[in-house]
Amino acid sequence: xxxxxxxxxxxxxILIFFTVFMIFYSGIISLLEDHLPTAVLELFRYGKTLDGxxxxxxxxxxxxxxxxxxxxYIFSSIYIPTLFYLSIYHYxxxxxxxxxxITGLDIVCSTSRSVNTNPSSLTLVLFLLTLQVFRRLYxxxxxxxxxxxxxxxxxxxVGFAHYFCAGAGxxxxxxxxxxxxxxxxxxxxxxxxxxTSWVLSIIFLIAWFYQLEAHKMFAQMKISxxxxxxxxxxxxxxxxxxxxxLCEIIxxxxxxxxxxxxxxxxxxxxxxxxxxxxxxxxxxxxWYITKFEDYPKERKAIIPFVL
Length: 307
What we know:
mainly alpha; about 300 residues; two-stranded antiparallel sheet; 10 helices; 4 strands
């Protein structure tokens, strides 16, 4: 995207802005929490960390139910599989990618992008990400329990932006999707995928399973105590307060490594997810400690035995 004569990578700009904003804003809150207006705090927090209904009349104007998470999983469950199909189609037929697709990627990822992964890695990553968004949509519809938790519209927008950036970002450094590169026919035999990618895929699926288990446990606690928050116990909750956030980091780290660290957008997506989920986990951990006097002292926020 050309802005003031510069070929701007919109996806990178969004990811960098989100990451820097999270670090800066969380740092300000950590240092000055007791001196900040309620609106500033509530703009950052959501769900249980709001500790009740929104108190700021300003933030109340932009509040939406937390159940609206479902909306961007509906979006991503259409968007990501479409990109997966697109990659499979072009790599299996060796038909050149439509100029309109390349132009669209030029607009959001700049014209100066280059090929930094291979067809089998890209299709594997998009397949795994498709599994993730399908499972998250399933959780939102069939597992998550109704609640009065809220979030403001900025969190809602970030959800859409994340999946948009992930899909377009993974695709924009792939062969055939960069102007002047050829799609090359992919070898769909199992032996064409490196052993390291298989190992990373297994790690991805283990994290995928444990994230599902954590969300099921949250839902069961809500069923058992519909009017108050409970202390999660068992499974990975033995070690960390937010295993679902830890699993999210593992998921996107696995995707980054499958693509290869030369794929700069994959690295940026992983960095954004890691920082975002770590900050969210620290917020949840502090909330648990203040709400439960008997909260296990050995339990960490997100990294077992470390943080």
